[in-house]
Amino acid sequence: MAKAKTYFFCSECGYQSSSWLGKCPECGKWNTFTEEVVQAAKPSAGTKRSSLAASKPKLINEVSTSETVRIATGCDEFDRVLGGGIVPGSLLLLGGEPGIGKSTLLLQTALAIPGKRILYVSGEESEQQIKMRADRLLGEGKKGNGELYVVSETVTQRIMEHIEAVRPDILIVDSIQTVCTEMIDSSAGSISQIRECTAEFQRYAKESGVPVLLVGHITKEGSLAGPKVMEHIVDCVLQFEGDRNYGYRMLRSLKNRFGSTAEIGIFEMRGDGLREVENPSEFLLSQRDENLSGCAVAATLEGVRPMFIEVQSLVSSAVYGTPQRNANGFDFRRLSMLLAVLEKRCGFKLGAKDVFLNIAGGIRVSDPAIDLAVACSILSSNVDIPVSPRYCFAAEMGLSGEVRSVSRVEQRIAEADRLGFEKIFVSKYNARSLNKKRFGIEIVEVSVIEEAFRTLFA
Question: What is the H or E stretch that residue 198 is in?
Fold first, then answer.
């Protein structure tokens, strides 16, 4: 019996060492080495040699190219994030928190793709559990893809045997952390297993031209579990996120070799699965019968998609000695910066008051164009004067209190006009290049925060 060998692997880059190291010599990270017992098995004599090894170098002008026909998923939001559909031979990785809906999204997609033979490999559920979930997603009297095969398996060698028998057009593996290979004698989910299994599926995808969709777990810090090299191997990294207390889910592209990473897909989680949200502004803007202070509407962009969100603020006298600051869906450090600007540059005394900020809908926004809406909502709550719900804001604030221009302001104004807003507050530097006659909405130009305050609360 061969003696087991112990190696240390870097959780960031997958670097292998025979002894523990405090700092990884490959990526430079500290305290990232974990110990694993590895016993590599010798490949059998009948193991086929990869066809990639027989390839020869070619001049780039001699490489023949043909337009690749993408595979439509039947879900417009999913296709938007992918760049128009699934590219044949690509390797996709979908990550997200437990219970966010990763398996639901892929199973619902597999049921919706027409005319494609799909193999759904699950290492977490049995065939009966997958069938129960599929019936719930389809509903009574509906039939999905008739060529969807499901199997519960965790060993890659057996998965390849199932692939040879089924010969699918699309392969789905849920999840990569539960799959292991017999070539390495270590537990599933270890760094060496994840790295080797991902490489095996990559070789299969590139040699056969069959796209492979992998589900990935994330750690408590929010990063994908496994070595960082896994994200480099795959062609596309998708992040499925959302707040469990709300029904909205967002699909972001963190890496995409075949499309833009600026797109975003929005879904609503319902009892019968995920539903596409074509107009997210209608869901993110709360319905108010009365004008209340502390609310302002911001025109933001998620990728290249305009969305209108409601910023809610509450400013009150501090009960304890130290004022409280709290922000949900917004960067806390940026909130502190905006409060400092309002007090230092604009003269609003907020240092001794509690400030609470919330982005309605449970989403998180990092677009600096909502700075003016945040400032106006805080000032509205401070003076207890409401801002009209028919007004919206699209501008960034600087450290000196100036209102700065933002990108794609025409797209924001056009969307505000379409949704029926009466006024939109933008930077005067943006307004210089605008053709105001194109829009039916009134465009208010401001250069400093005091001008917006006087216009709103005078």
Answer: helix 191-208
Structural contact between residues 30 and 22, judged by C-beta atoms closer than 8 angstroms: yes
* Angstrom distance (rounded) from CA 102 to CA 214: 10
How far is it, in rounded angstroms, from Cα 105 to Cα 77?
11
- The domain 71-278 having CATH identifier 3.40.50.300: the answer here is yes
pLDDT of residue 1: 43
**DSSP code at position 69:** -
Peptide bond before residue 175 is cis, with ω within 30 degrees of 0: yes
Tokens matching residue 297:
């509407």
Dihedral angle, C-alpha 52, 110, 249, 416, nearest 10 ° = 90
Residue 93 near residue 201, CB atoms below 8 Å: no
CB atoms within 10 A of CB 331: 14
Q: What DSSP state is assigned to residue 65? A: -
Question: Of 409, 402, 416, nearest to 452 (Cα)?
Answer: 402
Top-confidence residue, 380 or 434: 380
Domain 282-457: state its class: alpha beta
The pTM of this model reads 0.78
In 66-198, DSSP assigns E strands to 91-96, 118-122, 148-152, 170-174
Looking at residue 3, its pLDDT comes to 56
Q: For 37-41, 159-163, 291-295, 445-449, which range has the lowest pLDDT when averaged over its residues?
A: 37-41
